[in-house]
Amino acid sequence: MMAANAIIQVANLSKAFGENEVLRDITVDVAPREVLVVIGPSGSGKSTFLRCLNLLEQPSGGEIVIDGKPLLAKGTDIVAMRAELGMVFQQFNLFPHLKVLDNITLGPVRIRKWPVAKAREKAMELLRKVGLEDKAEVYPASLSGGQAQRVAIARALAMEPKIMLFDEPTSALDPEMVGEVLAVMKQLAKEGMTMVVVTHEMGFAREVGDRVLFMEQGRIVEQGPPEALFERPQQERTKAFLSKVL
Amino acid sequence: MDFRFDIIEDYFPLLMRGTLYTICISLASIVIGSILGLGVGLGKMSRFWFLRWPMQSYINFFRGTPLLVQIFIVHFALVPLFYGKTNAIAAGVIALSLNAAAYTAEIYRAGIQSIDKGQTEAALSIGMTPWQAMRFVVLPQAIKRMIPAFGNEFIVLLKDSSLLTFITVPEIMYWSNAMKNQYIRVWEPFLTAALIYFILTYTLNKLLVWLERKVQA
Question: pTM above the 0.90 mark?
Answer without folding.
Answer: no
